[in-house]
Design goal:
Elements lengths: L1 E2 L2 H5 L9 H9 L1 E6 L4 E3 L7 E7 L1 E8 L3 E9 L3 E2 L13 E4 L3 E7 H10 L1 H32 L6
Antiparallel strand pairs: 1-2, 2-9, 3-8, 4-7, 4-9, 5-6, 5-8
Helix pairs in contact: 3-4
């Protein structure tokens, strides 16, 4: 894994505008990663010890549905955050994630970031605000897909 610099992180949309000292904190807990198409990054129910900021590529989020197997429920792509379950006990993935295309990104150690959020209230508040924006955007996306599906009887293109 390759070390990550503050300037590299500063260019990612999720972190845009974050103060330099906070970017340094994140850089210390990050590494650059590459995954091939078909690689399962997250296994539903597994320990959520990391999260990723996607630089390039496309990841499908899925959930195990009894009788149907894995069903794709959403997708994450360039400039987005992958993985939110690391923030909340019991730190178990609520969904699975598999690379649809080759993916590059920044991988973060979740325990280090949780500890930093607890130790530095400014860092924690700023980071949680960014996460809340992700949650709100994904909730709105889910709402839109459900409405489209109920009106047409067709999946909204996950």
């Amino acid at each position: 894994m390759i070390e990550v610099s503050r300037p590299a992180l500063a260019g990612h949309p999720f972190l845009r505008g974050m103060p330099p000292g906070q970017l340094d904190t994140l850089a210390a807990a990050a590494s650059s990663v590459t995954f091939p198409a078909g690689h399962r990054i997250i296994e539903e129910g597994g320990f959520a010890g990391k999260f990723w900021l996607i630089q390039s590529g496309h990841v499908a989020l899925d959930v195990n549905v009894p009788g149907d197997g894995r069903v794709i429920i959403d997708s994450v792509g360039m400039g987005e955050l992958l993985g939110c379950s690391w923030l909340f006990p019991p730190y178990r993935w609520a969904f699975g994630a598999v690379c649809v295309t080759p993916v590059t990104g920044f991988e973060f150690d979740a325990a280090t970031i949780r500890a930093r959020c607890a130790a530095d209230p400014d860092f924690g508040a700023g980071f949680r605000e960014r996460l809340l924006r992700v949650f709100a955007r994904r909730l709105q996306s889910t709402r839109t897909r459900l409405i489209a599906k109920s009106m047409t009887g067709v999946d909204g293109g996950v």
